[in-house]
Design goal:
mainly alpha, about 85% helix
Length: about 80
């Protein structure tokens, strides 16, 4: 469920991000793809058991949330 929620949040953030800001859209898409490779490898090697390997997952989740808050603040100012 956590993996599905992370991908849902990342994909919806990519969809709602303004199309004019191509650099940020590429960054969001690259984070989604990096999580995809991380979880595919995690199926084979259970990466989330070690603390050091779990840091990128939770870091990208925090970035998704920060970007969504930033986008909501920009929309509120308009």
């Amino acid at each position: 469920m956590i993996v599905a929620a992370i991908f849902y949040k990342g994909i919806t953030l990519f969809i709602i991000w303004p199309k004019e800001d191509k650099e940020m859209r590429i960054l969001i898409l690259s984070m989604i793809l990096s999580l995809t490779t991380y979880f595919v490898h995690g199926v084979l090697n259970n990466f989330l058991d070690t603390d050091k390997a779990a840091v990128p997952v939770w870091g990208i989740c925090a970035i998704f949330i920060a970007l969504e808050i930033s986008l909501n603040n920009k929309k509120a100012l308009l």
